[in-house]
Amino acid sequence: MTELLSTRIPLGDWVSNFVDYLVANFSGPLNAFSDFIAFLIENFEGALAVLPPAVFIIILALIALKLRGKELAAFVVLGLGLVANLGLWSELIITLASILTSVLVALSIGIPVGILKAHNKVVHFITRPILDFMQTIPPFVYLIPALMFFGLGNVPGVVATVVFAIAPPIRLTYLGIKQVPDELKEAGRAFGSSPLQMLLKVELPGALPSIMMGINQCIMLSLSMVVIAAMIGAGGLGEPVLRSLTTVDVGLGFEAGLGVVIIAIILDRLFRSEEE
Amino acid sequence: MTELLSTRIPLGDWVSNFVDYLVANFSGPLNAFSDFIAFLIENFEGALAVLPPAVFIIILALIALKLRGKELAAFVVLGLGLVANLGLWSELIITLASILTSVLVALSIGIPVGILKAHNKVVHFITRPILDFMQTIPPFVYLIPALMFFGLGNVPGVVATVVFAIAPPIRLTYLGIKQVPDELKEAGRAFGSSPLQMLLKVELPGALPSIMMGINQCIMLSLSMVVIAAMIGAGGLGEPVLRSLTTVDVGLGFEAGLGVVIIAIILDRLFRSEEE
Amino acid sequence: FTPVEASADDTVNFGYVEWPGVTVKTAVASQILEDIGYETESSSYMQQVLFQGMRTGDVDAFLGTWLPTMEVNYREYYEDGVVEEVVTNLEQVLYATAVPEYVYEAGVTSMADLNEHADKFDHTIYGLEPGNDGNIIIQDAIDDGIYDLDDWTMMESSTAGMLAEVERATSQEEWIAFNGWEPHWMNLAYDIKYLDDPENIWGEDDKVLTVVRSGYGDEQPEVYRFLEQFVIDQDIQNEWIYEYGHEDRDPEDVAQEWIGNNMDLVLEFLDGVESADGQPATEVIQEVYN
Amino acid sequence: MAKIEVENLTKIFGKKPKKALPLLEEGYSKDEILEKTGNTVGVNSVDFSVEENEIFVIMGLSGSGKSTLLRCINRLIEPTEGKIEVDGINIMELNNEELREQRKEKFGMVFQNFGLFPNRTVIDNAAFGLEIQKVDKETRRKKAREALKKVGLEGYEEQKPDQLSGGMQQRVGLARALAVDTDIMLMDEPFSALDPLIKKDMQDQLLDLHQNIAKTIIFITHDLDEALKLGDKIAIMKDGEIVQLGNQEEILTDAANDYVAEFVQDVNRSRVLTAEDIMGKPLALLYEGQGPRTALHKMNEENLTSIMVVNRENKYIGVLSIDGVKEMLDNDEKDIKPYLLDIPKASPCDTLDELFTKMTDIETPLPVLDAEGKLKGNIVKTNVIANLAAQENSAS
Amino acid sequence: MAKIEVENLTKIFGKKPKKALPLLEEGYSKDEILEKTGNTVGVNSVDFSVEENEIFVIMGLSGSGKSTLLRCINRLIEPTEGKIEVDGINIMELNNEELREQRKEKFGMVFQNFGLFPNRTVIDNAAFGLEIQKVDKETRRKKAREALKKVGLEGYEEQKPDQLSGGMQQRVGLARALAVDTDIMLMDEPFSALDPLIKKDMQDQLLDLHQNIAKTIIFITHDLDEALKLGDKIAIMKDGEIVQLGNQEEILTDAANDYVAEFVQDVNRSRVLTAEDIMGKPLALLYEGQGPRTALHKMNEENLTSIMVVNRENKYIGVLSIDGVKEMLDNDEKDIKPYLLDIPKASPCDTLDELFTKMTDIETPLPVLDAEGKLKGNIVKTNVIANLAAQENSAS
Ligand SMILES: Nc1ncnc2c1ncn2[C@@H]1O[C@H](COP(=O)(O)OP(=O)(O)OP(=O)(O)O)[C@@H](O)[C@H]1O
Ligand SMILES: Nc1ncnc2c1ncn2[C@@H]1O[C@H](COP(=O)(O)OP(=O)(O)OP(=O)(O)O)[C@@H](O)[C@H]1O
Ligand SMILES: [Mg+2]
Ligand SMILES: [Mg+2]
């Protein structure tokens, strides 16, 4: 008994073996997934990269002006102009493409899962530790094995980003729906709403502020993964940051970091309205 | 004009100079701060480390039993037992101490700032981009200069963790307070509540679910910084993860990562009640 | 294993680690290959990821396999036959415990002197990321009480962390002992000295290898041949590091300028190599730089 | 067949409602059960039925289970026990999908707490039910606009609920229910926040609606006037039970128990019963000039012991008892005048108390005269005493 | 000095209220201003004062600005313009700190929408005001428990508001206001969700409280009976303005305009005026047996053209006109019987319409008789016509 207890459980070995097993047997479906992600990123990148910086900035500024007013438009011009001036334009585009992909994937999985979680106790109790797991397990731990499936580059970067950034949209969608007052849900039911109508017309509108916060956090956490993504070859603004690290070049790191922040602020403001 | 535009702005240099200036002139107060953080961490570590693992686990399990019921108590025994069995106990204690410090600092700054943000438009508009900045600026960018102030070790680790993990408590406190129905605030005012009473008796209770979510995310983001903290010498469970990287030891990385996750789940459940 | 398929085209995929020497070295090699008509692509990775990339086929060549520093990490891939050694591209590299010059001059010239001033060093030697072989060497020394280091600690963090600590210490003339190596810009940025190692714990034969993924020689014999001949020395390496790491110049610029100024050496590298369209590379490149 | 049939419906709130059921059957009171088990009895074995096109009014003390009962009917609250049939369909056995269909087709609902969607404009709130029914946008905005007009909220279509006053919000809730145009309306104190003018208007509209479009309505109110005006049937609840159920008359006059009596009487002082309310038509009358034989005949026919005498203008002259008739016959008298009894007279607006005082000493019914002295009706002692008793009991 | 003095108070909701102010002064209506500027007029130049220990009732159409006015008094809503004095303190000029103190010391409040804290138990809700006053825990729980007992919620102390019925929630709000025991109570439809029995109980308690502890109360209601029962003064609002302000009598009988008349009259059919309501005491009476000279003397003294004749039991006999008296004197007659006019008589419960019909052809006042034929009072034509006119106008 004591011996059993004091014997170190060879957990690590099991995991290694399991990973090997996975690699040996499940490369197919994972490849499809990987291809899909790659497809998204490439399209975003393609679309974003065709335009010269000046044109890109002007178009984005106009969109910002239309959607959110002139403050944001001005910020777009100044912020992206600065990035271009600092010579980080191509890195910016790469980062933007993979962040958009990550956020898109995270939201389009996360919000539905959050909805499920709010309606189904089993899902709720199962997802809770899983989300804790996904947010806190260090990406390096699963990334190196994951490279076997995804290869190097931006696909595993997106995967790691999604794993890390998916919890807030799930959790805040859940929270928002849970906080919709019972009397409104009751009114919805009384008129015979189907579950879908209930969701679209009662729950989601009521949960909107929380969901918006979930989107904000999803964007923020995605962008916080830029450097880790660069470590596995995703390129983008994380690369100059890494370079600055090895050369202890505070200035360069700051410039690239600032690029990330500028993307963060622009995306955040575009996704969400004035009032948080 | 065109020349002006095409001239690269030496932003990086400015930042470097600024950092040098800071280092030269502000080491004093920063040292005081650093000492305070170090004091906290050491005390936590001291308090946690005096107990033998078995005793520690039993005490924590009893607390869990009292506060949250037997499921969590069982999880504490199994989870921490596993970590001890895997020989990661001392790392666990180190991580636990600095996470507790980080969360403590982040919450005790974050929640008040969130409160301010909900009450003061100026604070709201100023903090919004600052929070975006803090969450997305890669920690390495400011950590390297920060090392100039703090030296290697767990103090800069805590600082970086706080910078990264402070946004959710601020934002979710803000969101929660904003969502308290006007009629309740009105009732509070009608009876002559002082701003403090208003806060304690009306706003915070109403905002509780959101704030709890903020705490959850604060814990999660803190724990997600464990590896980065290890890169600047904070030790703890991040260290085996890094080692596993260097030695391509998937198993070891997973074990240490699992330790982080176990802490995450235990802390999360202890801080927050059954229902999220 | 079913590795992810290598990219179908002929692009030469260099992987590098963000170490100044390797960065510029990779830039020079790619520049030369581009000049003679090959498509190249360079991406930076963590070293662990890089070798994994050779397994998955994403990375063709890596010019910075520093042995024995990377030994632990590298060995597995080497033994698995994922990686193939091409040549030692840089000899006489040094990896050892270093101190700032003012410490050296104060009398700490050998590792045996360390313990005398233990308090000044705060009983600490700073190393790189956990698991690094230098760290392990020091840790073993501590564990075995070599140089009376028994009550010392090995402070592990990361390259950047350690260097930041060195910068902090030197700017305040504090005493510090750390794992330094050459070539690296730290040797230019700070006045540092390497300590004697009478017990020879560090070993002697440090070197930097060029490696490719197995079988690459068959796929791209010309590139392989170039890589075999691409060998440099300490001075060149230091120049690169200085220009890039200290003067903050773009590695591409540094590479281009260096090639232009050192055509004779470049011609040696390209001796017998054919350009992408089958011409003698030596002729092609000379045309480019005239 | 009744439109809505409710049988033995029980709802117990709390953790383990099934545990409280036996206690309820054993006759423990709501308060006792709350203390013993922590469960609150919402509705307790209620039976009733509502006919097609009927307005069924529910009244009762605050907390007596009215809202709970209403919500059970469309299963917004899941009953603990019982049977509900609507149009012959057993609501309790429907699955979710069927239940939704029923709710959509059959039930419009007005909530006590309004239940407006704060993010929707007034018009979008009013159009909610139609939106759920997938009515196209144009039609539903038109209908919603009409409904809002009906409730007097023209001009506020694009405001948000929190910009409206309490009564206006209530009317938005009303408009939302009106807009869907379902068979059955479940209305929980729908006019409670309205001023008298608008309330009257709404009541009239509801009656119109009910007559023209044949709606079945269950209506909760605290206003007895409203209940009397609208209700075809009125149920009075107490502690989850229906303690009396009947039409207006029955509720007002035949209180099933003290509670109902008090409830109904105290409601509105102007409702205190007067002579006019309880008087009946005399079964027979003797006209001035008619003699004792006619009197005897009439009295015999109707089994009376006295008969009232009036002139041709129906002016009251007096009352003749059977004793008087006998005396006249014995004395062979023709003129009844001297034999008339002089008894007290009531005015139509006399209260029960006054009537009682006037009647203490007399054996005959009491005549009710208008100011001209004309006979409006008569009152029998038993009648007064019965009503008085009900009143007094309820006051104690 | 009045307890509360409000002068020229105006509240306009919307983005730029100051812009709408001139329009208001130019006399544009609420609807026009809403259409023109998008601003809603909540309260429009209201003046009134409430004396110490007075119950001031506000009535009016839904949306007429009652709640807004109430909230302006303790500045829960910041008025756009105007002056508010409470105990001589200008509320409008207080800084935040002072305002809080005033609210804490002076104002208890009951909200139309209850405003209960969902996370607090019933007792903690009731104790909220005391908690704000920093009363120690024991005392405040004691007081809250008492207040809850007063409103009939014993046994529900530890429940959460959402476990209570609507009326029970309203009573928790009431208990919260009662518990703080302040000088002034601002009550926004505090009994609207209550059934008649509990409502009556609450009203009585409020009157008790008001008499025993001297509270000044501003009370919003839609229930005219309630207003009449409780109100020392009643204000009727329309479109943000106070259109009439007076005591019960004034409001009921002297409608300032059609709106008020309609408002007051339609309220409650049983409230329709009857002879009893409008009759007066005859200025002089002639007794059976008295002669024409006495009649002349009495009529002369009171400037009458006719006089009513009664017997010693006050039983109505007839009416004597001045023409009759003259004729008698001319003929030197003593017996007035033949000279009496036979005019219609009214019963106390006759309505205005009935009275009017009866009075068309006569010149003298109309006698009001009870069932025994006794004279209760008389009615002058002008009186009927005035009241009738008010009614008819309001109906059009
Ligand atoms: N927060 C607000 N924003 C905009 N308009 C408002 C607001 N509150 C009230 N109003 C408007 O002010 C007017 C008066 O509203 P108020 O709530 O005072 O009415 P009320 O007399 O209390 O009515 P009720 O009897 O229905 O409660 C209404 O037209 C309403 O639309
Ligand atoms: N969700 C709930 N949880 C627990 N108890 C409840 C709940 N809803 C209602 N109750 C209880 O059920 C009883 C009946 O409540 P209901 O709302 O049906 O009363 P009501 O007759 O509508 O009263 P009111 O006239 O005040 O609206 C009350 O005692 C109440 O406390
Ligand atoms: Mg109810
Ligand atoms: Mg109101």
Description:
The complex is a heteropentamer, with 2 copies of chain A (276 residues), 1 copy of chain C (290 residues) and 2 copies of chain D (396 residues). Chain A has a single domain (11-50, 86-270), classed as MetI-like fold (Orthogonal Bundle), CATH 1.10.3720.10. Chain A has 276 residues and is mostly helical. Chain A is built from 15 helices and no strands. Chain C has 290 residues and is α/β, with parallel strands linked by helices. Chain C is 42% helix and 19% strand. Chain C is built from 13 helices and 10 strands. In chain C, the strands form 2 sheets. In chain C, strands 2-1-3-10-4 form a 5-stranded mixed β-sheet, sandwiched between helices. In chain C, strands 7-6-8-5-9 form a 5-stranded mixed β-sheet, sandwiched between helices. In chain C, β6, α5 and β7 form a beta-alpha-beta unit. Chain C is elongated and about 65 Å long. The N and C termini of chain C lie far apart (48 Å). Mean pLDDT of chain C is 86; it is low at 1-8. By secondary structure, chain D is α/β, with parallel strands linked by helices. Chain D has helices at 17-25, 30-37, 66-73, 96-106, 122-126, 128-132, 137-150, 166-180, 196-212, 224-230, 248-253, 258-266, 275-278, 292-302, 322-331, 352-359, 381-395, and strands at 4-13, 40-50, 55-60, 81-86, 89-90, 107-110, 184-188, 216-220, 233-238, 241-246, 285-287, 306-310, 316-321, 366-369, 375-379. In chain D, the strands form 4 sheets. Chain D has a 6-stranded mixed β-sheet with strand order 6-7-8-3-9-10, sandwiched between helices. In chain D, strands 2-1-4-5 form a 4-stranded antiparallel β-sheet, sandwiched between helices. Chain D has a 3-stranded mixed β-sheet with strand order 11-12-13. In chain D, α7 (137-150) crosses α8 (166-180), α14 packs antiparallel against α15 (322-331) and α16 crosses α17 (381-395). The longest helix of chain D has 17 residues, at 196-212. Residues 266-271 and 392-396 of chain D have low confidence and may be disordered. Chains A and B meet through α2, α7, α8, α10 and α12 of A and α2, α7, α8, α10 and α12 of B. The complex binds adenosine-5'-triphosphate (2 copies) and magnesium ion (2 copies). The site of one magnesium ion has 4 residues of chain D, from α3.
